[in-house]
Amino acid sequence: MTVQGTCDPRFSQVAEEFEANLAGRGEVGASVCVILDGEVLVDLWGGQAAPGRPWERDTIGHVWSCTKGATAICAHVLAARGELDLDAPVVRYWPEYGAHGKGGTLVRHLLSHQAGLPALREPLPPGAFYDWKLMADRLAGEEPFWEPGTRHGYHALTFGYLVGEVVRRISGRSLGTFFREEVAEPLGLEFWLGLPEEQEGRVAPTIPADPPEAPPAFYVKAFTDPASIPALLLAHEGGYMALGESDSRAAHAAESGAVGGITNARGLAGLYRPLSLGGGELFTPEHLAAMSLTTSAGADAVLLVPTRWALGFTRSMDNRYLPPADSEGVLMSGTAFGHAGMGGSVGFCDPAARLAFGYTMNKQGPGLGVNPRGQALVDATYRALGYQQVYGGIWLAPGD
């Protein structure tokens, strides 16, 4: 398959891995972007966006939970301006949220997956996932599954409404509008939370992962224990996770701050570009340091594997010692943070390396982290910078 774009010779290993992904590792269509010191040094794309349609420079796709990084940045923009206190109770901004013992939930609990609301106990009507008010009201009236702040569990589908409603209450704008006006447009990003209809023709539809030999523990629990959090998460989402629904016009148009973002590698890397430069146009170095600190780590009450979270972002996670079905994580340096998306897309920054990275694709991998194709590109990027991988999967800078 033809690979197009540009690649600085220093990152030739990234181009080689990208070509290998397309040639023999099951990649169908994809893009990768590496920004170093604010300069785009890798911008590659290739393969097929859809049958008979090549992946072009302007092809975009669904990046699933990479969206959470964009939503978190919206909250941090407000915090950096002094309009949002991350240590304040959520009820300061969203009074109705205090129902059923949630009055002590802090904003930082929402961002670090400690809020205790990864699912809803009762079913949702079809299409409810596209109704912002309905979702916010249901979450405000729900009882937490654990005391907020006492443990963490991935809020896969609810994160966007929890954090996004705080953004909406403070700014008076919908999450998608705030992201567009305060982040995407100022940074020149083709990245949408709520895709305009005129952009539909550019989207590469998602290709589901091939069935794994053994499913991850999350899915085993969901399909064997109907009262479990994984089962409730998948069953009570208004039909969004039905096969093909995420490619519908309704799904693309919805301002879903957990899983609905649409962009390409250039947009993902561009989102993290200012963060790779010490905060850039968005944050002071002091706020950047605070937003990147690990706030929750260890056994995840939802994913059932170890996870590590900063305030809205993934930290490096090495799960390769687990059974193959649960072995996917994301291997970065100890100073990097960002977010992966279901099936393997990923965007992150590494302020110490002054690096921003993005990878998107249409053919998903079967695991819950960055797929091996994406990880190969991340690894090649760090190798090109002279980093070495040490115990725990951490990439270590030269001289460290």
Automatic annotation (TrEMBL):
Domain of life: Bacteria
UniProt cross-references to Pfam families, sorted A to Z: Beta-lactamase
Location of the Beta-lactamase-related domain: 18-367
SUPFAM superfamilies xrefs: beta-lactamase/transpeptidase-like
InterPro entries named in the record: Beta-lactam-related, Beta-lactam/transpept-like, Beta-lactamase/esterase
Stored Gene3D superfamilies: DD-peptidase/beta-lactamase superfamily (3.40.710.10)
Name used for this protein in its record: Beta-lactamase family protein
Species per Swiss-Prot/TrEMBL record: Nonomuraea zeae
